[in-house]
Amino acid sequence: MLNITDLTLHYGQSQILYDVNLAAEAGQITCLMGTNGVGKTSLLKAIAGVHPRSGGAMSLDGKDLPVLPSHVLAKMGIAYVPQGREIFPLLSVRENLETAFACLPKAEHIVPDHVFDLFPVLKEMQHRRGGDLSGGQQQQLAIARALMTKPRLLLLDEPTEGIQPNIIQHIGKVIEHLRDQGGMAILLVEQYFDFAYGLADQFYALRRGEIVLSGDHDTVSRDDMLAAVSV
Question: 120, 122, 190, 205: which sits with the fewest CB atoms below 10 Å from its CB?
């Protein structure tokens, strides 16, 4: 679904990513791991068009993508759940979900039942303001809002950060369910090692802006991945 070749990224004169090569397939969870500050969030931002890449190539479902703004990529099927959630605190839960209508034709401007099936708490709280929700509920809202756009590629940036264990478990089950549907590629950035290692089909380890280890779950041992991301 997603192929990245020799991607580079700069913030001003500072280079953050160096010739990154990565693929994420439909029906799989691809996990990008590494310590703080190695460029994981920057890579997701480059994929989502939040920050333009400096060089390299990117394709979605075999179609080459030039450097495009995020709203165009969102309409093409790339959904981004940022670190920190970034829901609209003064809008209701339902209104937050409806902001995704901007990516959809008018005939599809409905909140489908399956979104509430995945996150029942949102149905109960759909008329409450987003800012009144707990951190875990806001994270569920952020993921649900992304799913509203009917993505082909879902980018998740540390969805377990600051979340209570029972909601982490629920989010993990939702991610597995989305994977098992088969039509979506999921690229997960995660610091919670056991959560990520238990979910992922494919791994990439990022260190100082470069991929230093990659492989599937059957070929990359837990110890190898821990060593790669702990330096």
Answer: 120
Task: List, for residues 57-89, the tens digit of each pLDDT value.
Answer: 999 998 999 999 999 999 999 999 998 888 999
Instruction: State phi, psi for 111 to the nearest 5 degrees.
Output: -90, 110
Maximum C-alpha span of the chain? 50
In a domain, 91, yes or no: no
Residue 109 included in any domain: no
CATH of the domain at 208: 3.40.50.300
Q: Answer whether residue 119 is part of any domain.
A: no
Res. 120 pLDDT band, cuts 50 70 90: very high
Q: How many domains does the chain have?
A: 1
**What span, in angstroms and rounded, lies between the C-alpha atoms of 47 and 23?**
12
CA dist 115 and 119 (Å) reads 6
Phi and psi, residue 24, nearest 5°: -130, 125
Asked whether residue 231 carries a pLDDT value surpassing 70, the answer given is no
Q: Which domain holds residue 65?
A: 2-85+152-229
